[in-house]
Amino acid sequence: MKKFFKILTASALAISVAAGTAAFAACGNDESVIKVAASITPHAEILTEVVKPKLAEQGYTLEVIEFTDYVQPNLVVEQGEADANYFQHNLYLDDFNATRGTHLVAAAQVHYEPFGAYKGGKFTGSSLSELPDGAKVGVPNDGTNEARALKLLEKEGLITLKEDIVSSTATKLDIVSNPKNLVIEELEAAQVAKSLPDLHVGIINGNYALQNNLKIADAVASEDKTDDAVKQYVNVLAVKEGNEDSPKIKALVEALLSQEVNDYISTKYGGAVVAVF
Q1: What are the strands of the beta sheet with 104-112, ordered from one edge?
Q2: What is the domain range of residue 203?
Q3: Final residue of a domain: which of 224, 252, 267?
Q4: I want to staple 85 with a disulfide (CB 3.0 to 4.6 A). Which of 37, 99, 151, 182 is the partner?
Q5: In this predicted model, what pLDDT tens digit does every residue of 78-96 receive, in sequence order?
Q6: How high is the pLDDT of residue 163?
Q7: Are 127 and 68 in the same domain?
Q8: How many domains does the chain have?
Q9: Which run of H or E residues covers position 201?
Q10: Has this prediction a pTM greater than 0.85?
């Protein structure tokens, strides 16, 4: 049975956890300190550049702890080592709770990052229809994001998935038609962009595309932002169930859903990040 989540290599994860643990220890239990685990881009940028000064005006100190994987940020919130995290979409959060037995909830719906297909070093065409037979396509290997990548390939007419498959759990084993004999390479989400030189196409999460200087405008295919289905991919601020109404989380939500954040997102990311509030 396919695992839904894949943790980073031991060495990389050790670095991430060590850095996070040190930061958490430094924070203590001060109720004026808000600790948030976040992906580097765009989440930590938004928190540091805009949210932190707004919270300072209310007497709160925002501590942003950066992570490079999609597992530890949820675990540290579940374990009470952080007050919240900001890195994931609704569907990933739901699947994580179901498979890991965690008790996390969305305290705020913040932004959407269009999923894009980007040209790799082995491809010189200008559209996915020009992919050669046997082309290598990199996709994220965690459950919800692999399914999301495969749905994008299906939308572009390159593959067909089983009719009865739940779209959020589809894997390459659920492909029933693959006329171009695409070789689907399942990679840890952060590694898809880094593997582009060896691929024809990589289908990449928005935050990792930004970290690797990939612009959604340059993608050879992307999700339709007007599709109702993308609502499940809205990135959220997540907290431990029961903490949604704490004063510090209310203050964090108010600052994160401010006009200043909306303006920052619109100005900085050029459509690669879209505010939903």
Answers
A1: 61-67, 33-39, 84-89, 234-240, 104-112, 274-275
A2: 116-224
A3: 224
A4: 37
A5: 999 999 999 999 999 999 9
A6: 87
A7: no
A8: 2
A9: strand 201-204
A10: no
